[in-house]
Amino acid sequence: MSTATESKTVLKPLEDRVVVKPLEAEQTTASGLVIPDTAKEKPQEGEVLAVGPGRWDDEGENRIPLDVKVGDVVLYSKYGGTEVKYNNEDYLVLSARDLLAVVEK
Hints:
Elements: E1 17-22, E2 45-51, E3 55-56, E4 63-64, E5 73-76, E6 82-86, E7 89-95, E8 99-103
Protein backbone atom coordinates (compact mmCIF):
# COMPACT_ATOMS: atom_id res chain seq x y z
CA MET A 1 0.00 0.00 0.00
CA SER A 2 1.43 3.36 -1.05
CA THR A 3 0.96 6.59 0.85
CA ALA A 4 1.20 10.13 -0.44
CA THR A 5 4.57 10.62 1.25
CA GLU A 6 6.05 7.49 -0.35
CA SER A 7 5.09 8.36 -3.93
CA LYS A 8 6.81 11.38 -5.36
CA THR A 9 5.15 13.04 -8.34
CA VAL A 10 7.42 15.03 -10.62
CA LEU A 11 6.27 18.02 -12.64
CA LYS A 12 7.49 17.69 -16.23
CA PRO A 13 7.33 20.98 -18.16
CA LEU A 14 6.47 21.01 -21.85
CA GLU A 15 8.47 22.56 -24.70
CA ASP A 16 10.56 25.58 -23.56
CA ARG A 17 9.12 25.83 -20.06
CA VAL A 18 11.00 25.54 -16.77
CA VAL A 19 9.73 24.69 -13.26
CA VAL A 20 11.36 26.92 -10.63
CA LYS A 21 11.16 26.88 -6.83
CA PRO A 22 11.28 30.57 -5.80
CA LEU A 23 13.91 31.31 -3.17
CA GLU A 24 12.85 33.18 -0.07
CA ALA A 25 13.50 36.91 -0.07
CA GLU A 26 15.55 38.48 2.71
CA GLN A 27 13.42 39.00 5.81
CA THR A 28 15.61 41.59 7.52
CA THR A 29 17.35 44.73 6.34
CA ALA A 30 21.09 45.30 6.64
CA SER A 31 20.44 47.23 9.86
CA GLY A 32 18.49 44.32 11.35
CA LEU A 33 14.91 45.56 10.86
CA VAL A 34 12.40 42.78 10.18
CA ILE A 35 10.40 43.24 6.97
CA PRO A 36 6.70 42.32 7.29
CA ASP A 37 5.19 39.98 4.68
CA THR A 38 3.06 42.78 3.25
CA ALA A 39 6.13 44.90 2.45
CA LYS A 40 8.24 42.15 0.92
CA GLU A 41 8.98 42.25 -2.77
CA LYS A 42 8.11 39.27 -4.90
CA PRO A 43 11.25 37.09 -5.22
CA GLN A 44 12.95 37.06 -8.62
CA GLU A 45 15.43 34.28 -7.91
CA GLY A 46 14.80 30.57 -7.81
CA GLU A 47 16.20 27.09 -8.29
CA VAL A 48 15.43 25.17 -11.47
CA LEU A 49 13.68 21.89 -10.60
CA ALA A 50 12.74 20.68 -14.10
CA VAL A 51 13.43 21.70 -17.68
CA GLY A 52 11.32 20.95 -20.74
CA PRO A 53 12.81 19.33 -23.85
CA GLY A 54 12.89 22.63 -25.75
CA ARG A 55 10.76 24.12 -28.50
CA TRP A 56 10.76 22.95 -32.11
CA ASP A 57 12.64 24.98 -34.72
CA ASP A 58 10.76 26.76 -37.53
CA GLU A 59 10.88 23.69 -39.76
CA GLY A 60 9.53 21.49 -36.97
CA GLU A 61 12.39 19.02 -37.34
CA ASN A 62 14.76 19.74 -34.45
CA ARG A 63 14.34 20.70 -30.82
CA ILE A 64 16.16 23.81 -29.61
CA PRO A 65 17.59 22.95 -26.14
CA LEU A 66 17.35 25.38 -23.23
CA ASP A 67 20.32 27.23 -21.72
CA VAL A 68 19.55 26.11 -18.15
CA LYS A 69 19.68 22.78 -16.35
CA VAL A 70 18.21 21.31 -13.18
CA GLY A 71 19.92 22.75 -10.11
CA ASP A 72 20.75 26.14 -11.67
CA VAL A 73 19.80 29.24 -9.70
CA VAL A 74 18.20 31.73 -12.07
CA LEU A 75 16.91 35.28 -12.11
CA TYR A 76 13.54 35.69 -13.79
CA SER A 77 11.32 38.59 -14.80
CA LYS A 78 9.28 40.03 -11.96
CA TYR A 79 5.83 39.26 -13.32
CA GLY A 80 6.73 36.37 -15.62
CA GLY A 81 5.44 32.83 -15.45
CA THR A 82 2.51 31.16 -13.77
CA GLU A 83 2.38 30.46 -10.04
CA VAL A 84 1.38 26.87 -9.31
CA LYS A 85 0.63 25.17 -5.98
CA TYR A 86 1.27 21.43 -6.11
CA ASN A 87 1.46 19.07 -3.11
CA ASN A 88 1.30 22.11 -0.79
CA GLU A 89 4.44 23.58 -2.40
CA ASP A 90 4.63 26.79 -4.42
CA TYR A 91 6.28 26.63 -7.83
CA LEU A 92 6.64 28.90 -10.80
CA VAL A 93 6.33 27.64 -14.38
CA LEU A 94 8.26 29.98 -16.66
CA SER A 95 8.85 30.19 -20.37
CA ALA A 96 12.54 30.26 -21.31
CA ARG A 97 11.96 33.86 -22.47
CA ASP A 98 11.14 34.88 -18.86
CA LEU A 99 14.56 33.73 -17.62
CA LEU A 100 17.03 36.61 -17.38
CA ALA A 101 20.28 35.09 -16.07
CA VAL A 102 21.91 32.13 -14.34
CA VAL A 103 23.48 33.01 -10.98
CA GLU A 104 26.97 31.55 -10.71
CA LYS A 105 28.32 31.06 -7.21
